[in-house]
Design a protein that fits this description.
Layout: E1 3-7, H1 10-22, E2 28-32, H2 33-38, E3 49-52, H3 56-63, E4 69-73, H4 76-83, E5 95-99, E6 105-110, H5 117-128, E7 131-133, H6 137-140, H7 146-152, E8 155-157, H8 160-171, H9 182-187, E9 208-210, E10 213-219, H10 225-238, E11 246-252, H11 259-268, E12 272-275, H12 277-281, H13 292-298, H14 304-311, E13 316-324, E14 328-335
Length: 339
């Protein structure tokens, strides 16, 4: 988790060091120029220490979306004012936490569930000996929200509004059933459907999509963005898979400058990784249908199967080894879901 902490006082700087020492080793500390002068910090050779020589709201224009977690050693009211206008949606905003100047309280302020602020709040409070303050209704009531559940199993919410409605039922004491078929727990499989037994006319349903699909892509030079997107959607539909279940795409080193491929992944918001020839050669046994043409051209018998496997943890199974799609090959690897 990319984390930044901000302070504007000498006590605040002490708290920053305490958080770095006890909670986050990889932590960027932003210190106001005034405090840096008082403590003679400007001469310190520390790449994790950044002196602030501008107003914090202006600084945040550059850093707010750079980090997953922002910690402010400052009054909560002041922090509310300086982050105003920078947050957009609870499913995309970074987590924001405040700590008072004497490190008595750690307060989860923004993105408590999906951003992880609630969990990080507890972690920080435990590390520095402070009291965690969490105000989300499900947490204070000792109940779990749908978005929290999705975080815990490292999955992605299908619809935030649906999740809010189901969480509202939980918070208000309604019975909400969690459908986890035994075969998912015993065999790490996903369910294609669910049977709900209820006498209620209207039932709120929220779908959580595990991001455990890794795709390997091979394509001809010059293939268009539109073609790649169309064929990828087609292949995922054929496998009855959600497009948003894709955690990462992968291809060979020779495709790292393939404009159509790069643009397609950018439009679909799918990260892509490229693997070198030496890495692919080690896994050529995965290729069931070896191509002599590809071997002669780039030195390996195939791209999609080894790359899909390399992008994953290696624990799981191929749902499709090689799908031929008019100038493209696609392999789909499903990673096991850890319980």
């Amino acid at each position: 988790m990319r984390t930044a902490i901000y302070c504007v006082s000498k006590n605040g700087y002490k708290t920053c060091l305490k958080v770095k020492e006890n909670v986050y080793n990889n932590l960027h500390i932003y210190v106001s120029g005034r405090v840096a002068n008082l403590l003679n910090l400007e001469n310190e050779n520390n790449e994790d220490l950044i002196v602030i020589n501008e107003r914090v709201p202006i600084l945040l224009e550059k850093t707010f979306n750079k980090y997953d977690l922002h910690i402010f050693v400052a009054a909560t009211g002041a922090v509310v004012r300086i982050i105003e206008g920078k947050f957009k949606s609870k499913d995309t905003d970074p987590a924001v936490i405040t700590i008072d100047d004497h490190a008595n309280f750690v307060i989860s302020l923004l993105s408590g569930h999906l951003g992880g602020a609630n969990e990080e709040c507890k972690k920080i409070a435990s590390g520095i000996g402070a009291i965690p303050v969490i105000t989300t209704a499900s947490d204070v009531g000792g109940k779990i929200a749908v978005d929290t559940l999705s975080q815990k199993i490292k999955a992605k919410l299908n619809d935030l509004d649906e999740a809010k409605r189901v969480t509202s039922l939980i918070v208000n004491g309604e019975n909400v059933s969690l459908h986890l078929p035994k075969n998912i727990i015993n065999h790490d499989e996903n369910s294609a459907g669910a049977i709900i037994v209820s006498n209620r006319k209207n039932i709120e349903i929220s779908k959580i999509i595990p991001q455990n699909i890794f795709i390997g892509i091979g394509c001809k030079r010059g293939v268009s963005k539109e073609h790649i997107i169309e064929k990828l959607r087609y292949a995922m539909d054929k496998q009855n898979l959600e497009l948003s279940a894709i955690k990462m795409a992968a291809s060979a080193w020779v495709k790292s400058d393939e404009i159509g491929l790069l643009e397609a992944m950018k439009e679909l918001d799918i990260p892509i990784k490229f693997f070198e020839k030496e890495e692919i050669l080690k896994l050529e046994d995965l290729i069931e249908e070896k191509s002599e043409y590809v071997k002669k051209t780039i030195g390996v018998y195939g791209v999609s199967e080894p790359c899909a496997f390399l992008a994953s943890s290696g624990k799981g199974t191929f749902l499709a080894k090689k799908i031929k799609l008019d100038g493209m090959t696609l392999s789909i690897f499903e990673e096991e879901i850890e319980n």
